[in-house]
Hints:
By secondary structure, the chain is of the alpha/beta class. Helices cover 35% and strands 18% of the residues. It is built from 26 helices and 30 strands. The radius of gyration is 33 Å and the shape is globular. The relative contact order is 0.11. It binds ligand ANZ and zinc ion. Zinc ion is lined by residues 442, 444-445, 448, 486, 488-489, 491, 493.
Amino acid sequence: MNEYNPSEIEPKWQKYWEEQELNKAEDFSKKPKFYCLIEFPYPSGEGLHVGHPRPYTALDILARKRRMQGFNVMYPIGWDAFGLPTENYAIKTGKHPKIITEKNIATIKRQMKMIGLSFDWSREINTTDPKYYKWTQWIFLQLFHKNLAYKAKMDVNWCTKCNVGLANEEVVQNLCERCGGEVYRREREQWMLKITDYADRLLADLGTVDYLEKIKKQQSDWIGKSYGAQVVFKVKSKTMLPKEHMYDLPVYTTRPDTLFGCTYMVVAPEHELIEKFKDQIDNINDVLDYRDQAKHKTELERTNLEKAKTGIELHGLKAINPVNDEEIPIFSADYVLATYGTGAVMAVPAHDQRDYEFAKKFDLLVKEVVAGGNIKKESWIGDGTLVNSEFLNGLNVQPATDKIIEWLENKGFGFQTVNYHLRDWIFSRQRYWGEPIPIIICPRCGYVPVEEKNLPVLLPEVENYQTTENGDSPLALIEDWVNVECPKCGEEAKRETDTMPQWAGSSWYFLRYCDPKNDKILADKKKLKYWTPVDWYNGGMEHTTLHLLYSRFWHKFLYDIGVVPTAEPYAKRTSHGLILGEDGEKMSKSRGNVVNPDDVVKEYGADTFRVYEMFMGPFDQPTPWSTQGVVGIKRFMDKVWAIGNKLDNKKRTNNDEEIRLLHKTIKQLAEQIETLDLNTCVSALMILINKFQDKGCNQEIFEQFLKILSPFAPHLGEELWQKLGHKKSIFLEKWPEYDPELAKDAVKEVPVQINGKMRCKILVTEDMSEEEIKNLALADEHVKKWLEGKEVKKIIYVPGKILNIVI
Ligand code: ANZ
Ligand code: ZN
């Protein structure tokens, strides 16, 4: 018998599968289609670490099994290649990002092939390919035509050292993630996408898709729909205007029932009220200083509940509570955000924790209006009876809310409304390595879209990839690119020099896989109709409120303009847990705990690598790497090899344990591959192999085993299969059927003793836990009779043999 030598057999079969085109998805095949998708990677210079292949392998197993089950499977791959790390590397080295990207792609592609992932490489896409980003730009233009893309002055995070705008994710504790430089907020005109127009549908349609519950929850929390009321307070200043001419200060509140408990108001430091009443606020200089300080904080810091509240009173101004005409102080405080609701709140310290802390600090009145808590100690946010609230007294929160809204609407002081936490999507980056935004800025005509026939707007060559001194993209320096004729009036105009964010290309890439080479339209409608929606999409939890939400938004938009046939892009979404370093920490270069798949595959083979990654723990949980665990899996592979090389000729009958266990295992895998319980699938395969080791194994049984092993360890499966004399790939075989009778768990009778005396027998199955068996015994009618009125001291269970209850 020759040795199991993965480094010899693995490349051989990879080449064979590619030549046989086994992984190719066929448009319009009569077979049922199955579109499974993983998030396409960013081609980073470091290549893959062992964390990346975990989801790739899991869905590869699913894809391979579904092909064997007769599905026309599409499992495509591509590159999400615009973005920061490459650009930063280009700034550092002066190399063109395109060259860097090509090199990185080559590395990762080699690694993916090395692992035996069954991607359909004929559909490979790259977001930085002009033939691809032409369509990203085209989608932007459609958004622009529908008024869903607009330019607005926005605060951006600005790194003072890199002199560059940063995304929120790039700011860590107020410092630039890359250089540690100080970050402040700076105003800039930015392109915005009106995702808020889709907030309601993005929320409602979560009801139509099969996403993990925690993913749905994160998305709906992020969209954050809340029901409440807008209430208008009047602002009284030293000018003593009559009430009807006083300034209107509207607030958004989810608790209008607490209006009588409002004892002060808070506006965001950036609120227009401060600018408007500049001359009438006595301490205006301090108020403006406070505003400047707030500029240096991120939103997250401002709203952090743990942080001590800060603020400053606007001396000289008072607000008038519309329900009782009481005059109350107004503060500026940064825990109120300018961009949510109306940027102002009615503070009810008795019933809101932030207001409570603020009131304690500034010694403000805490007035209880909902009974139920102890407001001497803390705010009460629960239900209760209204008190101190005139016509609301005696009602509970909900009826009081209805009543006050009716009252406000009748008096014209307010109205019922909803609010969303979701904000419009800041879509501009002042960077080089992104899709140019296809807009021309004309002094006469304003923002003029580039004509579709002139797409793509190509990224020009530049000498320097760094953002310019005044914060523009380096594109702004390329005069012969920037200066163009206005497509509308023909006069001198300039190109938009902002580029799109990293999230643009990934918002629609799954559509392009359906028709990757089309140059007439982003993808042929009939092909989209055949392939979409994606049946199963797996990706990182960290993308739930970014990529996943953005792409749902674009998809809905494309649906509205008739480009795609479904309202939702992904029928199902799952998420994987991270692979941690051997030390249990997140893998990172600085910790030195990164494991490279190249090393693992070189030493143990790709199949061992794949099976280990599936075995290491529940797929959705973070799990530390263990070299010892890898060695254990290698031993399992060796065992499979050894058994496959010395099969016996003995006939088996249905009474043989190995037959029963085989059917049980086929059943288990059929079910658990579908739920991605892949670690338990691997243990089932191991148990089966151990049984073969005990009882021997003939070719017929072993071939069945190989079929269910091969999605996990495809190279070993194919090698042993063809060694047994087959001339065609094992992946052209049908997924084996199991006999339900044989797959049933073996049932055993276990005698039950009470204080050492045999009283009855219970039936237990192999898969029952000790806990379940004990409970089963205690629930038995005979046992119950004996236990009546007695105390159970102890239950001793000898697995499969006897259960003794001591009373
Ligand atoms: C008075 C009140 C009384 C409130 C009470 C709560 C409890 P969600 O559910 O997130 O929509 N708020 C409104 N605008 C704000 C802003 N720009 N920055 C910070 N806080 C703001 O929360 C709405 C509640 O958050 C509003 O209801 C308001 O406080 C506050 F017993 O109004 B409430
Ligand atoms: Zn013009």
